[in-house]
Amino acid sequence: MTEQTFRERECVHRARGAVGEFLRGPVYVQLLQRLKPAAAAEFAARVTSFFWADAGQIIVWLCHDCASELHAPTQQRGRPG
Question: Cα torsion at 46, 26, 64, 37 (round to 10°)?
Fold first, then answer.
C-alpha cells in the first residue's frame, strides 16, 4: 500500500497560537474560487502560498475564524489519514 505525503500550508494566525484545523487543498481552492477576485486575493494572502495545481498534495491549516469566514464545511476539515 502506498502512503501519500501531504505538504502543509497555514494561515498567519497559527503562529499567534490560534486554534484551527486542516482543510484539504482542493476544498480550500474551491472555497476561494467562490469569492470575488479581490476578496479571494486578500484571503489567499493569509495562507502560505502554493500552486493551485498542487492542491491535491496540500493540506491547509486554517484558524477557526478564517475557516468560518471562508464558509469551510466542517466535514471537509481534519488532517487526511
Answer: 50
Whole-Å CA distances, 45 to 2, 4, 67, 77, 80: 33, 27, 14, 20, 24
Q: State pTM to two decimals.
A: 0.84
> Could you tell me the strand order of the sheet in which 7-10 lies?
7-10, 58-63, 20-24
Q: What Å distances lie between residue 76 and 25, 34, 36, 66, CA to CA?
A: 10, 16, 22, 14
Q: What is the pLDDT of residues 19-29, one digit of tens each?
A: 999 999 999 99
Q: Please state whether beta strands 20-24 and 7-10 pair in parallel, antiparallel, or not at all (unpaired).
A: unpaired
| pLDDT tens, residue by residue, 40-56 | 999 999 999 999 999 99
